[in-house]
């Protein structure tokens, strides 16, 4: 059995085994925050890859390190109190953490775009959306005001904002939450990035609008063949749009799998708990399962498996030995590409 230790500096092998470098590869990333009370270890050896045209969903409870990992990729972290003591962030094979500030800025400014949860605080309230969308083209491509406005309308059309030409001079507060989030998507698309990181892009929206915005994002991602990292704590939204999932707990990846396999046969008790806590239409009125206890204090992560105080399957070894990310296989040892689990008892979990 192959064991991949996600606590060591050894990079995880690539799932595709191809010769070309993946679009983005995060290797053994660690992030810590130096606070008054001590060092908070928010990210503790994360490995993941995203290829062009692929959607990776990153899932986990609040505080598991999903956003901090994204912020490290975007380069909005490597200043106090945040620190990246270890790890690599490879964009097309080149480590962004080792590049000159200028080279990094070029990649982060045009090749990678980020969409945040809260469009209202990301848009400038005193400028029209047309001006803000057009600014990208004026600044980066030197277009005239008129040309930039035409581009802004084109983008608004692309993200399906009705009557774009009539609304280009409206201010952010004049749009609904869903429409504002479409404007954020348009902003991200403007420079035709290779990778989009969407951090809870629909969480602030009504449920019906959530699905529409998610569908739009998925459609554009396919059309432009971009990589997409979709951060969410909602397993329900990812089933239709993601190719693969990485589940995070206490700053580590605890399970990775192609999306449909994860739903069918989770190989980690934490993932099982997350799946059991999704509301299901056929179980209306029944009490919803909730994982007992709370995520750990990052100043004092439990020894052994960080999930052990909450895990219904925990045994003695779980309190002393940190589980590596095991390659998960079929019962007869047959390969299950892309499947890994950081549970000592993954076999029992997946094969019963
Ligand atoms: N600037 C900071 N200073 C200190 N601690 C921080 C800082 N930023 C983030 N953290 C800590 O890092 C941990 C991981 O945070 P992160 O935002 O990545 O969680 P998340 O998985 O995105 O959660 P959520 O689902 O709530 O967005 C949290 O415990 C958070 O308190
Ligand atoms: S290693 Fe132990 S505590 Fe951790 S998830 Fe597996 S059974 Fe639970
Ligand atoms: Mg977050």
From TrEMBL:
UniProt KW Transport keyword: yes
Main location: membrane
Annotated ranges, domain ABC transporter: 24-275
Membrane topology summary: Peripheral membrane protein
Protein localization: Cell membrane
SUPFAM superfamilies (UniProt xref): P-loop containing nucleoside triphosphate hydrolases
Keywords carried by this UniProt record: ATP-binding, Cell membrane, Membrane, Nucleotide-binding, Transport
GO biological processes: peptide transport
Recorded GO CC terms: plasma membrane
Superkingdom to which the source organism belongs: Bacteria
Gene Ontology MF annotations: ATP binding; ATP hydrolysis activity
Family: Belongs to the ABC transporter superfamily.
Protein name as catalogued: ABC transporter ATP-binding protein
Organism lineage: Bacteria, Bacillati, Actinomycetota, Actinomycetes, Kitasatosporales
